[in-house]
Sequence to fold (352 residues):
Amino acid sequence: MGVGGEKFQLGTVGALGLSVVSSVSIVICNKALMSSLGFTFATTLTSWHLLVTFCSLHVALWMKFFEHKAFDSRTVMGFGVLNGISIGLLNLSLGFNSVGFYQMTKLAIIPCTVILETLFFRKKFSRTIQISLSVLLLGVGVATVTDLQLNAVGSILSLLAIITTCIAQIMTNTIQKKFKVSSTQLLYQSCPYQSLTLFLIGPFLDGFLTNQNVFAFNYTSNVVFFIVLSCLISVSVNFSTFLVIGKTSPVTYQVLGHLKTCLVLTFGYVLLHDPFSWRNILGILIAVVGMVLYSYFCSIETQPKNNDVSGQQSKEGDSAPLISDSLGKVENGGDDDEPLKVPMWSSKYSRA
Fold:
């Protein structure tokens, strides 16, 4: 595979690990904040998360941890607003639907993403990948879906949430490849638009769903502590989200998201003594099997492609190593550990 391939694979595994740890941590923190302390203003809290993330990245830019790279402002604005709207629609979906139907909404994001990438990007998913995704979705469904109470408004909101979320995640991957920007650069430029969108709609949305005013809430020292802790953890969550989608694919990110759901259920039972049943255990085991199968088949299917690219690089290296090195840095946005080709965890026919 070569040193470059091994370095990229380690970077991908690190991004996946960071995403899992940070996401599970913030879920536990937010559960304590909302369930124990009564701060249920999810959309407004998310706007604060994004604002703190932007401020942290601005400090990192000032300290020259990464370089600012400007590109199409309309694309960034549209992407940021769409991301904000998708988060708001997901919260509305939870407010208008039962928990079981909301979990079905989240499960539907994977097949919807597969359909959109197949139709508009001509991306092909092998039969083994499709089977492993089906096993994963079955497991998560068994572990999390409890009831399916349908209503017209809730169904429409769920459909809109699925579509906007899929498009936003596909755009995350596409923009990084098209404009040769890193996950940090894209997150830094889109954060203000996401934060502003959620800050404008958040208080109204939260007020509508909770019948409370976020600005009239009693902010005790414990509430403030958990809000600050949640915002700090969110920096890692937001960064790892963009990093994982940029290094892999939107489908892989959704697979990882369902694995995190199973981990949250497990930690909730072990640490918080949440009610648990054999159905939850069976579902988690099935989901883990699906996750392992998906990872295994992805790695198997990318090996021939890796070998072909390695052979091409070695031939180019024999003739003009300096030129090929320079092109590699330019294509990767100046980031040597984030090659745009041959993603180790994506499917066989991932776009370059």
Remarks:
- The chain has a mean pLDDT of 76.
- The two ends are 18 Å apart (CA to CA).
